[in-house]
Every structure is written in C-alpha cells, then in structure tokens.
From TrEMBL, chain A:
Organism of origin: Ancylobacter moscoviensis
First-listed, main subcellular location of the protein, grouped into a coarse class: periplasm
Protein name: Extracellular solute-binding protein
UniProt xrefs under Gene3D superfamilies: Periplasmic binding protein-like II
Organism lineage string: Bacteria, Pseudomonadati, Pseudomonadota, Alphaproteobacteria, Hyphomicrobiales
Pfam families per the UniProt record, alphabetical: SBP_bac_8
InterPro entries the record matches: SBP, Sperm_putr-bd, TAT_signal, TAT_signal_bac_arc
From TrEMBL, chain B:
Name of the protein in question: ABC transporter permease
Listed InterPro entries: MetI-like, MetI-like_sf
Listed transmembrane segments: 12-40, 71-94, 101-120, 153-175, 196-219, 254-277
Similarity annotation: Belongs to the binding-protein-dependent transport system permease family. CysTW subfamily.
Residues annotated as signal peptide: none
Organism: Ancylobacter moscoviensis
Alphabetically ordered keywords of this record: Cell membrane, Membrane, Transmembrane, Transmembrane helix, Transport
Length: 391, 290
C-alpha cells in the first residue's frame, strides 16, 4: 500500500493572502523567489517506488543508538528492507522536516512524551495507527502503563507506538564524592565547581519543578511558579563551572574528571563513562527521577506503510526489546522482554513493580505551546536560557 | 570594439556563477529573513505582520545585552590576538623567507576539524590536562589551575588557534602586494623601521588588515559552540539565543531580529575599526599628505 504524499505543492503558499505560514512555506517561497526553480527542494517529497508488501527502502528518523541496526538485522535481511536512518539531534529536527506544505518523506519517526498533542493537534503531522497491523502490540504483551496510555492514545485512536523508555536521573562519580541520596547533596562545599546540568530540557525541567514543590503540577506551572522554581535552583547553578551541551558532552566531562555529578542525565551515562575507564553511578535520589519514553509514529509523509508497520511490530517484539534495552540502557515495554534480558539490564528498573517506578518518576509532558494561564514552552525556554546564562 | 565587447561578455560569464550563487543563497534569503524579523510566530507558524515587537523584546532583555557583550569581547580579543600574532609571521614569510614551508606549517592546522580542535584544547587545558599535570609534576602548583578551562581565556585561546591560519592567509596575500622596492625606497629616503611599517607597509596592506581583523572578529563573535564547550557557565553568547529561537522555540522572527541586531553591532565595530585606523594614520589616503 502506498500513500500519496500529503501537502500542497512546493511554494504554493500565498504570502499576500495567507495569514499564517509555516517555516517550510516560508523557506519554499524564499527559495522560489531566489532561484525561480524549486524542484531541488522537493526531492524529499516526490513519490518513491511503490511497495506492495514488506520490503524496499524505509526512511526513519530516530535518536542515535535507537535505530535498531543490530536488533533487527536478521529481519531486515529476511525481508530485503534497507533502512535509511536519519539521526535526531533534538526533537525539533523531526517536526522541522514535516511541517508545512512540503513534508520530507519519512516512513517512521520518533517523538518523546510531551510532543503528542503538539504533533497531532497543532502541527497535524501524525497519521493515526491501525493497531490491528501491530500484532505484537497487545494488552497481553505490553505493560499497562504503556498500552493505551494517554501519551499515545486518545479519542480511541493510537497515534504512536511507545517502544523504549528510561529514566533521567542523577549520575555521580563515587571516586569524587560521597554517595548522593538527595539533590541537596549536590550543594556540598566539596562539590563546588564539580556539578553540571545537561542541556536537555525534557530531562531537567520536571525535576526543577519538583525541587520547588511543584512536581505534580508540571508541565502546567503558572509564570510565577516557574519563576519561583528557577530562583530555587540558583544555589545549584553556583556549584557549576560548565553546562553539558548534550549527553555526550556530559560523558566527556565525567571521563576527563572535570565534573563529579550531573543534575539529571541519561541513565546510560555510567555505561558510556565505563567504556572510557571512569566509574560513575546512576542514582534515583529521594526526589525521584524523570522518565522518558520514545514512541514510533507514522508521519503524514510516510510512503512505505507496510514496511513501517512491520518494523514497528518487530521493535516491540520481546527479543528485540531485550536486546535494545541492553544496548541503550533503557527499559522494555514488552512484558516478556525482562525474562530474555541479562541480569544487569533487568536490574536497571523494577519490572516487578512498574506502578511504583511510575509513581516515583512519572512520565510528564511539556509546557503548553500557547496559554494565558500557564508558562508556555517558549517562556520555559527563555527562563532556562536565562538560568544557564546566570542572569 | 568587438574585442572590448567580447572581453566584457567574458568578464560577465566569469562573475555570473558566483554572483548568482550569492544572490540566490545569501542575498535573497537574507532579505527575506530581514522581512521575517518584522513578523510574528506562534508554535513554529509564521504570521506575516509588520511589528517592531521582536526588536523591542530583544532590546529590552538584559540577557541579550550581556550575551552580546560576551560575543563582542570574544570577537575583539580573538581578532586583536590573531592579527597581532599573524602579522609578524606574515611579514617574516613575505620578506625574510624564500620558500613557503613556514606558511604551510601554519596552514596545516586546517587539516583537523573544528570540533576536534575544541576537544583537544579541553584535554590540554583540563584539570587533568597537559598543562596542569606538567605544572603539578614540576611542583609549581599544588592544585589544578581552574582558570585555564571553562573560562573566557579558554574560549579566546581556542578561537585564536582556529582563526590564525585564516588571518595569516589574508595578511600574506596583502603583504605580497607591498613590493620590497617600496620598502627599500622608503628606507633610502631616510624612513626609520617604525616609519616604514606605519607609513608604507600598513597603509598599503590596509585592505588585508581590515579583512583579516573583521573576518576573525565576525566568525569569533558569532560562534556559540566554542564558548558553550569551553567558556564555562558564564561564557554563553548571543548565538545560542538565536539558535534557541530557530530550533527550540520555533520563533524565527524573534531569532531573525536578534541576528540583525547582532549584525548591526558587527557593523558598528567595523566602522569603529576603520575609523581607528584612520585616526592612527594607517589608512590609505593619509600616507601621502603629512
């Protein structure tokens, strides 16, 4: 089955008539004005070869390490599927390709929790899923916390397929500090200049709210509450000499001995620092951790639909889940996967009591894009930038 | 007549590709981005309008001034250091050496990527890095010098390292236009070494000097990756604010407004630098009058 690419022809936005333009409209029109020819920029959206069944090229966009290269190798070879994976640097990379009149062809992409309503209701870049085509994704196979949960399912419609999750928590180097059991331990004088924050808003903002006592309210904090939360974080910032620009940068800072602890960062960090000869510990302090969960969704520009469904179905199979959980130090959504994991991977999370994991580290969304009542995503971004800049 | 026309047509043919390239991929997008800076945006949607809100919002934010000041400091320090270091090297290469070995040795640092060089400096300047370890082993310090890394010093040092070959290339090219005969003629007429430098060489390589200074200044002041990775907590620059608006907040008009304000700051620095050279009588046009 092949879907026709959705969207208007390139550069058709009328600058004089339309009162709202997407970035892609704007770019399209810009290039058209400049070049007089827009064909080159539409290459990504031209219809590709038809795929009557599973097979052929599959264009996906995923986080580095989450493209299932090794885990689905046998499936790819058996079905003659060539996966063309683009890597996500930030979630913005995904919707930048899909918004506007000329979405770039992507058969599958990932979104983190918090982007669901923005993608589905505002940007309208998500195709609803036909769950019948995902036989591995059933209530019998999937933990109830992930099956038909409101982050991916509402109005009796599945919009995305949650497939991997984990915790962003505090990571520290035990050789440089005593064990850290609460975030307040980061304020110890001996850690002056040895603490960092990772520039990962999804991982950090919920914890900022929680430390200020607004945890359950996040992401819907008023402007005053948001301001209070950032003000309370001042002493933690004073412990920092540098901000980690990414998970990789934080790993590098740990490896070079520049930092002893990171406020809230990927739980796989200790695995990566160990590869560089530095032992670090991932800890869930008394205040809890921040849960993340990535979901596959089918963008409006998807073409190789059959293969995309088959790929998603394989991604939530127990064996692939167990393998990818080990590879990315993440958690499985398939109930049968922990039995196939090695002891270390299984021990990462308390699969026997997932409701407690969710209670302590709830899966929270993101601030609203527009609101008269609550601080918006833009305002959080500004406050975060101000915080990092020591204003 | 025919020959003249043919030559003119040939000239146009030679210029047209690069001109068209710049027109399509720089001038038109820049003009449209300028137009966009007066628009509004909501959640990645652009709303055509004509408002100065984006400019007033940027100009009323103290953070914008502070980060712009950081950017300008990085740019100015790097440009002064880079030009100051590369000018004597260029002079030596042009007037004192016959081969280009030294020139190529300096340019060879281009063969490593920008990010690799940034991370290399992190290793050199780090708490457990080359400098601190050596100083501690020599017993000169008991604790690592934290001022070396995550400081403006680290940012400017790295930017100077990155920009030096660019400045050198421009200055060597400019100095090669100042023939040895001019220098010798000045000396024959009784000019001292300082006078030869300030009244002959510098005015004659004025364009190269301004080009090298502004080139390094604009790139260094506009850079936000090096300050982010090496500048520490207080090292952020305006570039990160602009990038945030384009990528994270989805507010292109606001990002564009900040970019054009930064451009205005760059233009002021350019005019100031040119005026300074003029006041110091290092600009062409002054050299023949006094």
């Amino acid at each position: 089955m092949v879907d026709t690419p959705k969207g208007r022809p390139f550069g058709r936005a009328n600058l004089l008539r339309n009162d709202v333009l997407s970035r892609r409209d704007f770019l399209g029109t810009s290039l058209a004005l400049g070049a007089g020819v827009a064909a080159g920029a539409t290459l990504g959206a031209w219809p590709g070869p038809a795929h009557a069944a599973v097979g052929g090229d599959l264009k996906i966009m995923a986080w580095e390490g989450f493209t299932l290269d090794n885990e689905l190798k046998a499936w790819r070879e058996a079905n003659k599927v060539q996966v063309d994976a683009a890597i996500i640097s930030t979630q913005d990379d995904v919707h930048a390709k899909l918004i506007g009149s000329n979405p770039v062809r992507l058969d599958l992409a990932e979104y983190s929790q918090g982007f669901e309503r923005f993608y589905v209701d505002e940007l309208k870049i998500v195709k609803p899923l036909d769950i019948a085509r995902l036989p591995n994704f059933t209530a019998a196979n999937i933990y109830p916390e992930f099956y038909e949960a409101p982050t991916w399912y509402w109005d009796k419609t599945h919009f995305a397929l949650p497939w991997i999750w984990g915790l962003n928590a505090l990571v520290y180097n035990p050789a440089m500090t005593k064990p850290i059991t609460t975030y307040k331990d980061l304020l110890a004088p001996e850690l002056k200049g040895k603490v960092t924050f990772c520039d990962d808003t999804i991982a950090t903002w919920p914890m900022i709210a929680r430390l200020a006592g607004f945890g359950p309210k996040f992401p819907n904090l008023t402007k005053e509450e948001m301001k209070t939360a950032f003000e309370g974080l001042g002493p933690y910032r004073d412990q920092c000499r540098v901000f980690g620009s990414s998970n990789g940068d934080v790993i590098s800072l740990f490896a070079s001995g520049e930092i002893a602890a990171c406020f809230s960062v990927w739980s796989g960090t200790p695995v990566e620092t160990a590869k560089r000869g530095v032992k670090t510990v991932y800890a869930v302090p008394a205040e809890g951790a921040v849960m993340w969960c990535d979901a596959w969704f089918m963008p409006i520009s998807a073409q190789n639909i059959d293969t995309a469904y088959a790929f998603m179905n394989e991604a939530v199979a127990a064996k692939a889940q167990a393998e990818v959980a080990k590879a990315v130090t993440g958690g499985a959504v398939n109930k049968h996967a922990p039995a196939l994991m090695d002891a270390d991977t299984r021990a990462l999370f308390d699969y026997g009591n997932l409701p407690e994991v969710f209670r302590k580290s709830p899966l929270q969304g993101q601030p609203p894009r527009t609101s008269d009542t609550y601080a918006t995503y833009d305002e959080w971004t500004q406050a975060w930038t101000d915080f990092k800049s020591s204003f | 007549m025919m020959k003249g026309r043919r030559r003119e047509a040939m000239g146009l043919a030679l210029v047209a590709p690069s001109f068209l390239f710049l027109l399509v991929f720089f001038i038109v997008p820049a003009v449209l981005l300028f137009v966009c800076s007066f628009w509004m945006a909501q959640a990645f949607k652009l709303i055509p309008a004509f408002t100065f809100d984006n400019y007033s919002r940027a100009l009323s934010a103290s953070g914008f001034y502070l980060l712009t000041w950081n950017a300008l400091k990085n740019g100015l320090c790097t440009a002064v250091l880079t030009v100051g270091l590369s000018f004597p090297a260029a002079y030596f290469i042009v007037y004192r050496t016959r081969g280009n070995l030294l020139f190529y040795l300096i340019l060879v640092s281009w063969f490593s990527s920008y990010l690799v060089r940034i991370y290399a400096w992190r290793v050199i300047l780090g708490s457990n890095g080359l400098i601190n370890t050596t100083l501690m082993q020599l017993g000169l310090i008991s604790q690592p010098l934290e001022v070396l890394l995550f400081s403006p010093f680290a940012t400017i040092l790295t930017l100077t390292h990155i920009m030096l070959p660019f400045a050198l290339l421009l200055l060597v090219s400019a100095l090669r236009d100042v023939k040895k005969e001019y220098v010798e003629a000045a000396r024959d007429l009784g000019a001292s070494n300082t006078e030869v430098l300030t009244r002959v060489i510098l005015p004659m390589c004025y364009k190269g000097l301004v080009g090298a200074f502004m080139f390094t200044f604009v790139i260094s002041a506009g850079d936000f990756v090096t300050p982010q990775l090496l500048g520490g907590r207080d090292g952020m620059t305006t570039g990160i604010l602009i990038a945030n608006q384009f990528r994270t907040a989805g507010n292109w008009p606001f990002g564009a407004a900040m970019a054009f304000l930064l451009l205005a700051a760059f233009l002021i620095v350019y005019l100031g630098f040119v005026r300074l050279l003029d006041l110091l009588r290092l600009a062409p046009g002054r050299r023949f009058h006094d």
